[in-house]
Amino acid sequence: MSKKSYPRLILASSSRYRLAQLANIGLQLPGISPSIDETPRANEAPEALACRLAQSKAEQIAADYPDAVVIGGDQVAAVTDATGKLRTLGKPGNLPNAIEQLTLCSGNTVTFYTALSLVHNAKHATLTECETVKVTFKKLTEAQIERYLLSEQPYDCAGSFKSEGKGVLLFERIESRDPNTLIGMPVMLLRDMLAKWQIDLASIVLR
């Protein structure tokens, strides 16, 4: 019995975290890093920002690979501060910013919006969806925050932690249908989105 042929899949990202997540389920994809402006628009909601950036990344790479299904992804975290203002948390980049982020997260519930976008230029098709995760943090001391950050140095992670590492010890609870989502690649959402285009992810990885 012949196996069904699917279009090539490309990840519009060079993120080692997302590539590793896909490799863990048996999906070895090329990762190509797009170059886009990730500056939020005025009053742009966190979910809208994540979706826009995911689609922009996929569209940029798809322009060079029209026959492939290009997967773009982006994650935006948001938390309400003591004044009631919704704050967006990006990648901290350094220790002082990370300390500020985790201090803000301490004792609060943070919502992570992880968007995926599929672009297949040959079919003139685009699909963008978002998966959310709610993380409630324990009340953390200044010493705990600094010790954690110096230990794991998660400065390239939105929210300033690695949930697949020691960062999980900072949490009170996680609310999500798919634990992969918090790391950056919502595998179950990817499966469901590909299925809408008659691409069976399970059959690809279980060949």
Largest sheet: 6 strands, mixed
- Compute the average pLDDT: 92
Number of helices: 7
Rg, please? 18 Å
Strand content: 15-25%
* H and E order: EHHEEHEEHEHHH
Uncertain runs are none
Task: Let me know the number of strands.
Answer: 6
Distance between the termini: 13 Å
How would you classify the helix and strand content by structural class?
Answer: alpha+beta
Shape: globular
Q: Determine the fraction of residues in helical runs and give it as a percent range.
A: 25-40%
Task: Give me some keywords for this one.
single chain, 207 residues, alpha+beta, 6-stranded mixed sheet, 7 helices
Structure description:
This protein has 207 residues and is of the alpha+beta class. It is 32% helix and 24% strand. Strands 1, 2, 3, 4, 5 and 6 form a six-stranded mixed β-sheet that branches. Strand 2 and strand 3 (86-89) form a beta hairpin. The longest helix is centred in the first third of the chain and has 17 residues, at 46-62. The radius of gyration is 18 Å and the shape is globular. It starts with 8 loop residues before the first strand and ends with a helix. The model has no long low-confidence stretch (mean pLDDT 92).
